[in-house]
Amino acid sequence: MLLEFVTYLKRQKKKAPCIIFIDEIDAIGKSRTSGNFHSGGNDEREQTLNQLLTEMDGFGAGDLTVIILAATNRPEALDAALLRPGRFDRQVLVDRPDLSGREAILNIYGKKVKLGEDVDLHKIAVRTSGFGGADLANLVNEAALLAARNQRQTVAQKDFAEAIERVVAGLEKRSRVLSDREKKIVAYHEVGHALVGAIMPGSGKVEKISIVPRGMAALGYTLQLPTEDRFLRNEQEIRGQIATFLGGRAAEEIIFGNITTGASGDLQKATDFAEQMVTTYGMSKVLGPLAYERGGKGGFLANGGVNSRRLLSEKTAEAIDNEVKEIVEKAHQEALDILNHNRDLLEKISQQILEQEVIEGEELYNLLDQARSPWE
Ligand code: ZN
What we know:
Layout: H1 2-14, E1 18-22, H2 26-29, H3 42-57, E2 66-70, H4 99-110, H5 121-126, H6 133-149, H7 157-173, H8 180-199, E3 205-210, E4 221-225, H9 235-256, H10 264-279, H11 314-341, H12 343-356, E5 358-360, H13 361-368
């Protein structure tokens, strides 16, 4: 009975100071607006959620010694009210393990079974990109079952090979493991960002490139740190940033001749930046140093009614669109120029990342230092 949970919660609160940990919070914290409104038991779940929210609001300043932690694999399904300030307002993303992480995890689970002489956990780690801790535990289990079924006393490398295939088949259904082709695209895409970022002004130092799937949306990522903490940027730097956003897409174009849907978020960011240059920062020569704000992103008055947005003539709106388009196209061309000029390096780093999954720090700086500007 779910309401028992709330009673339990109330009792725990009296025991403060304490830490309350709720695993699989999505079981009660699912968004109240999503489907299945009339299925049985749903009312109860909703009541429980409401009660949980009320209890959490009850932890005033005096109750700081009660800390509630919760875990979920489906943060996107949680009710928005749960994530507001004062409730679960801090979110910690626990990434899937990279190559060395997987090897370490395999070492732990590997101790629980009798491994044969030929077992190479490093090789198994290499082949299990995208696996989480539970998947690896499952893998060791499967391999042990296969050995037992064949009446062997120890688990052999070939058991792991077969178990990987079984587990991967299961994971692929949940689309969490990248195929070799997808991996390749992600690798070139991320290195594209990094190389353009290495040449263009305004983008910070690239600290890390990874093709280990992360979170819900990103298949790979390029971690860039700003060289200095600052908010002010000049026009050249913003243009550089836009080209860097487009670098992933440009690399896909050069290597594969087409673009995957993975690049759409980058395009959105690039366009947003270009639009801000024109409409907010007054960096357009055609439109001049005026702040034009366009609708769509306004606050709660955005749909008609009173608002302070400057009403744009059709002609001005068109001029803005043209300017934005020109900025993005120029940046795109610059990204292509840089990558074509450094094509060998693009290949080299991408191949390396396909082997290692992650390149970071000194090793990465040394590689990116070899990038050359096409305009010098
Ligand atoms: Zn990208």
